[in-house]
Amino acid sequence: MNKKLAKDVSQPFEMIGLVAMLVLSLIIVWYNIYWGIGAFAVSGLVYFFHTRYTRSYVERSLEKFEKNVLKEREDFMDAFTYGSPLLLCVVGKTGSLVWSNPAFDEAFTDKEQLKSTLEAKKIAPFFDDESTELTASVGGRLYSVSAANTDYKNHERRMLFWTDVTEKEGLRARIRDTRVCAAYINVDNYDEMLEASPLEEQSSIAAQIDKAIHSWAMSMQAVLLHARSDRYLMIFEHKYLAELRKDRFPILNTMHDIETKADFPTSLSIGICTEEATLAEIQEGAATALELALGRGGDQAVVRRKGGETEYYGGALPSVEKRNKGKSRVMAHMLAQLVENSTNVLVMGHSRPDMDSFGAALGVYALASNMGKPVGLVLEDPGDAIDLIYQAAKNLNAYNFYSHETALQALKEDTLLILVDHHRQVLSEYPPLVAAARKIAIIDHHRRANDAVENPLLSYMETYASSASELVTELLQYSGDRGDISRFEAEALLAGITLDTKNFTVNSGVRTFEAASWLRRSGADNANVKNYFKVSLQFFQKKSAIVSSAEILPNGVAVAYTKEPDPSMQVLVSQVADELLDMKGVDASIVAGRGETQTYISARSSGKMNVQTLMEKLGGGGHQNVAAAQVTVGPEEAIAKVVSIMREEGTL
Question: Which of 125, 223, 284, 577 is deepest in the core (most CB within 10 A)?
Fold first, then answer.
């Protein structure tokens, strides 16, 4: 290499001398050809000997320079490896220790522990990717290990750099463990619970609740503030949160053991926030988490983490029906005010609407129409579930059904968009309309989801209600003359209640029957309602085929699916899930089938399993006993995924 480099360095200078001698020789030839020939010969000899000498000299100089550089490099490497406080070693692929510096030898005196750390399988990542960084524990100390290649020919060795990060990681863990977490704690249905108990026992019950919450706070060395009779604020360290997650918030079950005279158990709703930047953000996040817990029916803990990530725990108890209808009166007044202050009203249910969505939409339509406002019902694809009642509504020529494009054209800055039977934009009949609307009201009975429409002007979400039609019926009751409805509208609302209560057999409370009674007084005929639920023979045969393919898994979970796609699959799987739940030994049912573009999953429960949280893990939602989801994979894969989730949770 030195010879080639010497040639490259000296050649430009050699060529300059050669050119000069050749020019002089040509000049001599001009005067005397013989002397010129001699000059050329002398030039050649001079060039030959000059080249050899110059290149030899340059080569020796380069060798001397290289030796000096190498010596300096060796001195530097010696200082780096032997005199450095860094822990360095060279290992082979088998885990053999080829070389180590004094600092490394001093740090790792226990060679047996080190040997287990340098096993081939543990150091293999360093040979696969030089940029790998791993953490190793040796002798009670924690080290961060990175690597560099020392053999560029066969890559059989790696130099490992060990950095002691014990104190650093310990400090990081301490900072993480002592981070502040805030929790809002709400005693569900506190007033109703005390009212249901004798006066002499009320103070005892309140004391038991307070003691249980204080004992829980003391076990975590937390600060507990009693904000009001049914509300607490707790400040605690983050290190306790992992244990709470692991045990799934045992305080929820502890509260169930407190006996009262009420016909529902004592329960808590807990909203927790962690990992936010400021104390104000943590407090605000905890309040939002509590609102979400209450919106999902209570008896659960909601943990809100940085970035909006949310976790749910508990929620096993059914929502308790509120006997006081004061909120319905307030909501009816607020809705009337919103309608009055709007130029026009658009009413929209969820995509692929069912009887409840359609009935609630017609009820709200009637309310706004009675107030003299232009109203449009956004519905472009009614689907098979409401085919009969939709055609009956069309034949009346009393309702303005808007397509998606027409609805978007009718939307103005002062238009009120009322969403019924859903509160998530993604589930709407036409999601872009929700995104564009400035004034939104929500009437829904489902448990609140993470992606709920933000900042609605009115949010009437009651999870105790059997259906959205029940909520709309109560709003109509408290709207005076504005709540007058036709016989057809009363039947549509009653059909919605009938569907979601499975003919008044589930989720039916006192207020459900009161709403149904009011609808009957408004002219609803049960015979006509029943006619809206009729299905074709072909539909019944498809449903029977899916039922016959069902399989009952351990713990009374029935699963069924069909690979045959069908445009009415959403209704099919829903009805099959209902029928499977009526089978002996079945406590929950999961049914999947393929629609035109996606797979529909319907889940039902008798109350022993929370199918809402199960469906939420697939991007769906619903109620504790009635839930659904839509996925892109096939029905068989969807059922396999559901079964896998249940096994992970210990349900199966």
Answer: 577
